Amino acid sequence: MWERLRRFSRLQAAERGIFLRAAVTLPLISVSLRMRGFGATQGSLQKLLPSSKQITMDSRKYAELAARMVRAAVHHGVGHPSCLEESLVLWWLLGRRGIASQLRIGIKKESAKFEAHAWVELGGAALNEPETPHQHYAAFEGEIAAVSPEQR
């Protein structure tokens, strides 16, 4: 535990802020998905997005930092969030900064079993995928949840 606190204290203020927002938001989204479903959860998150752009860092740099901090919150936070929960948090954090991103959901069939996976794309590149597992899924056509400043 002390090592985790030391690592957290070595983070820059922006990193700590993103980590804490993600750590608090992950369990809330998890509960909302279970109680209200995807559509209502995503709709509520959409309503909480600001109407104006508030970018303080380069969009790509912030997006990569947010993806790292959300991943850290998944590994060191409460519970065991799914890829959908992780992706919704990242998508929402980016939207709060006015960064246009897409929540993607894909499926694949192995043997007689269907599997689903969620990830966030920025400019066509997956943000919260350290490698390329999302490429093994057939993504639904169209955007499941997109945030762009022009849409608000």
Note down, in words, how this protein is organized.
The chain has one domain. With 152 residues, it is an alpha+beta fold. It is globular. Strand 2 and strand 3 (125-126) form a beta hairpin. It has five helices and five strands. Strands 1, 2, 3, 4 and 5 form a five-stranded antiparallel beta sheet that branches. The termini are far apart. Helix 2 crosses helix 3 and helix 2 packs across helix 5 (83-96).
Topology:
Layout: H1 2-10, H2 13-36, H3 38-47, H4 59-76, H5 83-96, E1 101-110, E2 113-122, E3 125-126, E4 138-139, E5 145-147
Antiparallel strand pairs: 1-2, 1-4, 1-5, 2-3
Can I get a quick summary?
This protein has 152 residues and is an alpha+beta fold. It has five helices and five strands, in the order αααααβββββ. Strands 1, 2, 3, 4 and 5 form a five-stranded antiparallel β-sheet that branches.
